[in-house]
Amino acid sequence: MQEMSSKEIPVVLTEKLDEQFFQSRTSKRSPIIFRGVDIGSCRLKWNADYLADAIGDHEVKIHVSSQSKLDFVNRNFLYKSISLKEYIRRSSQAPGLPLEEFFIDPHEKYYLRSLGGDVRKEVADVHKQYPEIATDLNLPYVFSADRFFSSVFRIASPGSQLWTHYDVMDNLLIQILGDKEIIMFPPSDLPYLYLQGDKSVILDPDNADLSQFPLFASATKYKSKLLPGDIVYIPALWFHNVKALNFSVAVNMFWKNLEPALYDNKDVYGNKDLVPAARAQQGVDKALKALDNLPAAYKEFFTLKLISRLQASLSGSS
Ligand SMILES: O=C(O)CCC(=O)C(=O)O
User: Is there an atom of ligand 1 within 6 Å of 155 CB?
Assistant: First the structure.
């Protein structure tokens, strides 16, 4: 059987991460880990007790699952509202011990992705929403201020793993407390990842069932361990999957690396396809619907014709 190709994400040691340095290291738009950057006092201050005291009164909406691998496609989790104090208390508990208070299972897993004030209309912005701790964290602004999109808290219980997905904006993921495993795949691996929307149905990229997902063997996996203080650049369209190895606190920052008009202005997550791409998808849906009116053999023939048209456009020959 074909051995899957595996690489490490390159690490660059630097104390200062400004736009110029960032541009000099990312011209190929591939992932990179910046290690040693001065991200502020959060590196020393942030732990479960400090965060619970400082921002514990905020109410948050969390993912709760009896399984460690969260599955967005089959929804193996519930959304629950809880105070940050209680969330931090539960998710920072040592792994293996049953929780005294729980929603569904004494060994349930937790994942928080912070949201905007009005969750449907506003993007998450850590500095705005959590002013109590804003001065602890220096976000590395490696882009011009008008391109900033959002900054998002990611707080996870040990072992919880977030589905493989892509986003449409460039992203710096800043690991602040705890260790995390990150697996990434380049955009060109899209045909091997069995996508539904922006998410892969393969929940465990380390142990995928190749009899069910044979094309996955052709993917190239980039895998690394993030340590506290690490900042990983996740370029738009690069697939990523993360697993918290212990109680994990991170903040990530999205920005519009392309012309702002190309992004869907109703997108509050940074993951809706770009406006021209969404339009193209609608065109394909319409084309397929039109072919439904034909007898099966004709439908198949004209679908193949469409595929070869698309294939030719991909290889630049149309
Ligand atoms: O680190 C995490 O918890 C998730 C990161 C992620 O999915 C992102 O930054 O887009």
Answer: no
